[in-house]
Specification:
heterodimer, A: 246 residues, mainly alpha, Urease accessory protein UreF, 10 helices, 64% helix, B: mainly beta, 11-stranded mixed sheet, 5-stranded mixed sheet
Chain lengths: 246, 243
């Protein structure tokens, strides 16, 4: 299906209301069974679990809240927002800059590798479902190793060419990232299913606030204050027994 | 040193040599005692091809209370050209209560050249009980090797609106230390060995990781300044020998 250009798109001024189809598309790509391997990543959480620091629902919520507000919002979320805008403007030069930034802000090797692995798997899985020359060009650059293929950037491009509004792209990404972490904690700590459900329920409100905040941020705001999580992600490389890749 | 341009309060010492060691040591001095509301320090360092330099900050950098509401800015711009080697030994940066500080460091390293860089941030004058009482602290560190951005480390602390002690943030830590290494021989360094020989505990945590383009990053989070500095010095020296 060829996508109409932004100029001729008569849905553009109602972008904050997803159509049923766009809503279902988001549900599908963020399903934990969507085969990009998010269930294999803990982004440093496993280090905390092995050090017996995450023992209760309250600890889990505190950890996820730091990851959400001090890492994702000021990192991937800004990059998704900017990649979405760049893809709508067909601005490949800007996307290349964002790719470099996305790799450079992820200092811990395993978290950086996770971003590339998820991104490449995402592109491979979604490519047969998308007909868009700009998206194809990006996929080609990844195949040719001209770009690494970070998840946040490819996801931003996919949402742009699929007419998913940036607001919902960011909202769904933040929700799915936190939900993925919680699911992984339920299996690894382990917690009961109800603990996981309650933790996500409580954090959903924070995800909504976080998404609102992202709209006020730009590249100049990129940062990572969740230094404890970053350090745990560095140390994860050297753990002897591990359930997760990061 | 072929060229030195300096304006008070910043001053670079003349280059010093230890015996027959060809490495030049240069001290960077700040004679004012600290930065006050709206002060700006610009430091540009360019290593011409074949240089071998160790730069040492003479003393801790103090950022005083921003009584005018303006932000103090320190900008460091470094270019390490071909076949060169630069070491920057860290001193502590201390933001006093109500200080506003922004620090931007950009380092460009030519392919094949070497860099070893350290940085330590304090929460304030901790021994006086001044801990995270500053208004804002924003620090960005960009390292590019042969044109590729390999590290973009940015933190932005506004203690009034954030819970720095929260799980996943600084937790009990007060001091933040960072070491950056760029060297083509870094791929031969056994990082697991360094990680496992870190003298951590008693509030000190540390981690080491590989960046792209033969770069390595090491982070320290500590409760005690002296303990963190001692361990950072030890790792710094170990990396200096192997770079």
């Amino acid at each position: 299906m060829k996508q109409p250009s932004a100029v001729s798109n008569n849905r553009s001024n109602t972008g904050a209301t997803p159509t049923d189809l766009q809503f279902l598309r988001l549900l599908q790509i963020h399903d934990s069974a969507f085969p990009i391997g998010s269930y294999t990543q803990s982004y440093g959480m496993e280090t905390y679990i092995q050090e017996d620091i995450i023992r209760s629902k309250e600890h889990l919520i505190e950890f996820c809240s730091s990851f959400l507000h001090q890492n994702l919002v000021y990192g991937d979320a800004i990059l998704i927002q900017d990649a979405h805008a760049a893809a709508r403007n067909k601005d490949s030069v800007r996307l290349l800059e964002l790719e470099q930034l996305c790799g450079a802000i992820k200092l811990a090797k395993e978290s950086r590798d996770a971003s590339v692995n998820l991104g490449r798997q995402f592109i491979r899985t979604i490519a047969p479902l998308v007909e868009d020359p700009f998206f194809d060009e990006w996929q080609n650059r990844i195949k040719l190793n001209e770009v690494k293929g970070h998840y946040a950037i490819s996801y931003g491009i996919y949402c742009a060419v699929s007419e998913v509004a940036v607001h919902h792209a960011v909202l769904a990404y933040l929700f799915a990232s936190i939900n993925g972490l919680i699911q992984n904690a339920v299996r690894a700590v382990p917690f009961g299913q109800n603990t996981g459900v309650q933790a996500m329920h409580e954090l959903s409100e924070e995800v909504v606030h976080a998404t609102e905040l992202v709209t006020t941020l730009t590249e100049a705001d990129l940062c990572n204050n969740a230094l404890g999580i970053e350090l745990a992600s560095m140390k994860h490389e050297y753990l002897f027994s591990r359930l997760f890749i990061s | 040193m072929p060229n030195v341009f300096q304006q008070p309060p910043l001053k670079a010492s003349r280059e010093l040599y230890e015996g027959k060691n060809p490495m030049a040591t240069v001290y960077v001095m700040e004679s004012s005692g600290g930065m006050v509301a709206g002060d700006r320090n610009d430091i540009s360092i360019r290593l011409k091809p074949g240089s071998d330099v160790r730069m040492i900050q003479q003393s801790a950098l103090k950022i005083y209370r921003s009584h005018t509401g303006e932000t103090c800015v320190q900008s460091i711009d470094v270019q390490v050209e071909e076949d060169s080697r630069l070491e920057w030994m860290p001193e502590v940066i201390i933001p006093f209560a109500d200080a506003k500080f922004q620090m931007d460091t950009t380092i460009r390293v030519a392919k094949g050249s070497k860099l070893l860089w350290g940085e330590i941030l304090a929460p304030g004058r901790e021994k006086r009980g001044e801990v995270f009482d500053f208004t804002s602290l924003k620090s960005t560190m960009k390292i590019a090797v042969d044109g590729e951005l390999v590290a973009f480390d940015a933190i932005h602390f506004t203690p009034d609106t954030m819970h720095y002690a929260q799980l996943g943030m600084l937790e009990e830590a007060l001091y933040i230390g960072s070491i950056w290494l760029v060297s083509e021989t870094s791929s031969e360094i056994d990082l697991r060995n360094i990680q496992e020989s870190m003298q951590v505990g008693n509030g000190l945590r540390a981690g080491i990781t590989r960046l792209s383009s033969h770069a390595v990053h090491c982070r320290f989070l500590g409760v005690d300044q002296w303990q963190l500095q001692q361990e950072m010095k030890r790792v710094f020296t170990e990396l200096a020998v192997r770079m």
